[in-house]
Amino acid sequence: LPAGGVSLRLCSTRVTLEGINKPVIDRIIRVDHAGEYGANRIYAGQMAVLGRSSVGPIIQQMWNQEKDHLKKFNELMVAYRVRPTVLLPFWNVAGFVLGAGSALLGKKGAMACTVAVEESISDHYNSQIRTLMEEDPEKYKELLQIIKQFRDDEREHHDIGLEHDAEAAPAYSVLKTAIQLGCKAAIFLSERI
C-alpha cells in the first residue's frame, strides 16, 4: 500500500463498456463531474462568507449533498474510464468566486445564485435523461437512476433557494440570467474539452 494506506487497485466494477455509446457516456459523465465539482466550489465560497450566519446550516446541508454527488461522479469516471475536463482548475476558481461573490450580496444573493445554478443543472439533467432514454433505458438503467436522483436533489436546492428569498436579491433577474449564461457556457465547454 502507498502512503496513506489507500490501495492503488481501482475497485472492480459491474460496468460493462461493451455496447455502450462511449462518446455520449463520456460527454455525460465528464460534464456532470465538472458540474458537481463546480457546485462544490460554489457552496465552499458561500460557506466562506456566510458559514457562521443563520443561513450557514442550510448552505452546509445542500453542500453535503453536492459532496455526495461529486463522490459518485468520481466513481463513475473510473468505472466508465472517462477523463475529466481539462477545465477543472478554472472551475475550481470560478466556482469559489461565484459562491463567495453571490454570498457577499447577503443571504438573498447566495440563494439567487443557488436558484440560478440548480435550475440550469436540473434542466441539463433532464436533457441527459431524455438522451439516455432514447439510447437504451435498460442499458443505462443505473446511470439513469443516479441522474434522476441528483436532478431531484438539485430541484430541492432550487426550491430551498426560493423559500429563502432568492427573488428578493438585488437585480435578481439580471443576476439569475448572467449566472445561467455562465452555466450554459460551462456545460458546453466541459462536455467537449
Automatic annotation (TrEMBL):
Top-level taxon in the UniProt lineage: Eukaryota
GO biological process assignments: determination of adult lifespan; regulation of gene expression; regulation of reactive oxygen species metabolic process; ubiquinone biosynthetic process
Example of a GO MF term: 3-demethoxyubiquinol 3-hydroxylase activity
This protein's record includes keyword Lyase: no
InterPro entries the UniProt entry points to: Ferritin-like_SF, Ubq_synth_Coq7
Gene Ontology CC entries for this record: mitochondrial inner membrane; nucleus
A Pfam short name: COQ7
Protein name: COQ7 protein
